[in-house]
Every structure is written in structure tokens, then in C-alpha cells.
Design goal:
Blueprint (H helix, E strand, L loop, with lengths): L2 H25 L5 H25 L7 H24 L5 H8 L2 H13 L7 H15 L9 H27 L2 H23 L4 H29 L5 H9 L1 H13 L5 H28 L3
Helix pairs in contact: 1-9, 1-10, 1-11, 2-8, 2-9, 3-7, 3-8, 4-7, 4-11, 5-6, 5-7, 6-12, 10-12
Membrane topology: Multi-pass membrane protein
Keywords: Cell membrane, Membrane, Transmembrane, Transmembrane helix
Subcellular location: Cell membrane
């Protein structure tokens, strides 16, 4: 596979994830957020299992109790991120959700300090300031315009950062990213279904009405897009992968406008641009610094 083909796969994955924001928003017209999360990740677990079996044939590291414990912990982090994002979409727009969720790129280095005591690259501090300025502009320059959903989505981004940090260290130990994926999907599905059965009503009609969104997000956003990401990142550079995967926020914004008719003030678009810039520089500047420091 050529680098161009790999980058196109990553772009397709980002587009699928962007469409997932629209599906998550429209599904709640028919079904509660926790039922949607539970069914979505239940489908995702089944979708990834065939790839897990293929991966197991080539696995060189035996799965231990420690690994299983980490899988469960990562699943809880994913459940926290999925829950706050889904509930947040009830009171925020797809555009806001897609861009604010992308702040996990900025949070990851900060979370790494807490977990592994590793100081972040210097670029994280100006990037964090830029991201906060972007959120302020996204509100139209009025903090009162930020909704509860926007706040929940910031928390969601923090959960994603925890999940990404733990997943990165776990995959380096287990060498089984697809097994990790299926395990965290399964944990999230069980947690969400338990909560949903306790507090949310459900009917066959509700599930039927939300079925297209559940299947899209479960099969494509979680299953297909994840596999595309794993394949694509094997054949391209981290810098280019960051650029193409970060376009998820742009796809979410564009699809929100086209399919749901969402709009925002001009200052809001400037805020999106600032947030997108913060996401990119956090990924690109450290990588470029490494390449420059390497001997020719």
C-alpha cells in the first residue's frame, strides 16, 4: 500500500467518525442516550470480533490477568467518554460536540503527566491557551452562551484522553489492539445497558426507529473506521496521520450543517479554526522536532 492510499484510508475513517456525530444526535429523537450507547457498543463488539480472532492467530504475547484488568479500566474510561458525549449532544450542536471532543489531543499530554509523571512538550501550553480561546469564541464571545452539553463534552474529551493514554501503554504490552478494542467496547456496552435498564424507558418501536443510527455508529464508526485507522497508520507518518484523522472535527461540522441545518456566528467559525489549530500543533510540532533532531 502506498502512502497516498494509506492517507486516503485515514481520511475515510475521519469522515465516518464525523458522520457518527450526526447519527448520535438524531438517534436520541427515538431512544435514550444510555440505550443508544449500550446497543451501539454491543454491535461494535460483535463487528470487531472477527478481526480479534484473526489477530489472535499472530499474537506473540499471552494475555494475563493484569492485561484483563487494564482492558476493564480502559472500558470504564470509554464508558465515561461515551456517556458524557452522548448526554451532551442533547443540549449542544453536532458542530460544537465534534470540535470540543477533539480537545482530547490537547489533554493527552496533560493526562500523561498525571499517569506516568512525564512532562509534556512545551507546545502543549500555548496549544491549551489556544484551545480555551477557541471554546470561548465558539460561544460567540459570551460564556453564558455555552450550554451544559458543551461542558459535558469538555469532560468527555478528558475521558477520551485517559482512554487513549491507558490504551497506548496497554497495546505496547499486549501487542493486541483489536483485542483491546473488543474488550473496551464490551465493557462499555454492559455498563450502559445496566444504567439504561435502570433509568430509561425502552420499546421495540424505539429500537427500530433508531436502528439505522445504531448500526451505522456500531459497525462503521467503531468497527470499520477503527480497522481503517490501524491499517492506514502502518503505511504513513505520524504527522500525516494526525492531519487526516484530525479532520474528523471538520467532517462533523460540515455534515451537521448539511444534514441538520446547523449554523453558528462568524466568531464561532473562528473558534473552530483555533481549536483545530491547537489539535494539529500538539500532534505535529513534537513530531517535526524529533525529525529535525535525527541525524541526516
Amino acid at each position: 500500500m502506498t502512502r497516498v492510499q494509506a492517507n486516503l484510508l485515514l481520511l475515510l475513517a475521519a469522515a465516518i467518525w464525523g458522520g457518527g456525530f450526526v447519527a448520535q444526535s438524531t438517534a436520541m429523537k427515538a431512544i435514550g442516550p444510555f440505550w443508544f450507547i449500550g446497543l451501539r457498543f454491543g454491535v461494535a463488539t460483535v463487528a470487531v470480533l472477527p478481526f480479534v480472532l484473526l489477530e489472535a492467530r499472530k499474537a506473540g504475547v499471552k494475555t494475563t490477568r493484569r492485561h484483563l484488568g487494564l482492558y476493564i479500566l480502559i472500558g470504564f474510561a470509554l464508558f465515561g467518554g461515551a456517556s458524557t458525549q452522548q448526554i451532551g449532544l442533547q443540549t449542544t450542536t453536532v458542530t460544537n460536540s465534534s470540535f470540543i471532543t477533539g480537545l482530547y489531543v490537547v489533554f493527552v499530554p496533560l493526562i500523561a503527566v498525571a499517569f506516568v509523571r512525564r512532562p509534556p512538550h512545551w507546545i502543549i501550553w500555548p496549544a491549551a491557551v489556544t484551545a480555551v480561546a477557541g471554546i470561548y469564541m465558539l460561544s460567540g464571545g459570551q460564556l453564558s452562551a455555552l450550554t451544559m452539553g458543551d461542558g459535558l463534552t469538555v469532560i468527555c474529551a478528558a475521558f477520551w484522553a485517559i482512554q487513549i493514554t491507558l490504551a497506548g501503554t496497554t497495546v505496547s504490552e499486549t501487542e493486541r489492539p483489536l483485542m483491546l478494542s473488543a474488550a473496551q467496547f464490551g465493557v462499555t456496552a454492559v455498563c450502559a445497558l445496566v444504567v439504561a435498564a435502570t433509568i430509561e424507558p425502552i420499546s421495540v418501536e424505539a429500537v427500530t426507529d433508531a436502528a439505522p443510527e445504531i448500526l451505522y455508529v456500531g459497525i462503521f464508526s467503531s468497527g470499520v473506521a477503527f480497522v481503517l485507522q490501524v491499517i492506514g497508520q502502518r503505511y504513513t507518518t505520524p504527522s500525516q496521520a494526525a492531519i487526516f484523522l484530525s479532520s474528523e472535527a471538520l467532517f462533523g461540522s460540515v455534515l451537521g450543517a448539511l444534514l441538520l441545518g446547523e449554523t453558528m456566528p462568524r466568531l464561532g467559525y473562528a473558534g473552530c479554526a483555533l481549536m483545530f489549530t491547537a489539535m494539529l500543533v500538539v500532534e505535529l510540532v513534537p513530531e517535526l522536532g524529533k525529525r529535525r533532531s535525527q541525524p541526516a
